[in-house]
Amino acid sequence: MSAICELCFHHCKLEEGQTSLCRARTCRDGAVIPLNYGKLTSLDLDPIEKKPLRRFRPGSLILSVGSFGCKGYDTFGPFKLVGGICKGRPDENDLNSACHFFDGLS
C-alpha cells in the first residue's frame, strides 16, 4: 500500500516502509505515520521577537522546543534551524540529550 504525505509542499508519495523527504514520516498499512512524535532534538532560548508573540514582552527570551523533520527547512530566513536537526534520522535523535541538558540546569 502507498500513501501521500500532505503535510508540506513536497507531497511525498510513500510506499510501505518508505521514509519521507524530511525523514520524519513513514508509510505503515497505507497511513502516514510520524517518526518524530515525542522526540525532542532542539531546545533553545530565543529572542521573543522571533515568535508571533513578539509584542508580548519585547527584549525577553522564550524557550523553543523542536524535533527533527521540520517542513520548509530552507525557508526560515535569519532564524534558520540547523540543517542537521531538521534533516536528522530518528535513530540519531534521542530524548536523553534533552534530559542531560535539564540535569545541568539544577
Structure characterization notes:
The structure is a single chain. The chain has helices at 83-86, 95-105, and strands at 2-4, 13-15, 25-28, 31-34, 42-47, 61-66. It has a two-stranded antiparallel sheet. A two-stranded antiparallel ribbon has the order 3-4. It is α+β, with helices and mostly antiparallel strands and 106 residues long. It has two domains: 2-34, no CATH class; 42-105, no CATH class. It is built from two helices and six strands, in the order E-E-E-E-E-E-H-H. Strand 1 and strand 2 form a beta hairpin.
Largest sheet: 2 strands, antiparallel
Tally of domains = 2
Percentage of helical residues?
Answer: 10-25%
Describe the strand arrangement of the main beta sheet, using strand numbers.
1-2
Order of helices and strands: EEEEEEHH
Instruction: Tell me, briefly, the overall form.
Output: elongated
Beta fraction: 15-25%
Rg, Å, rounded: 16 Å
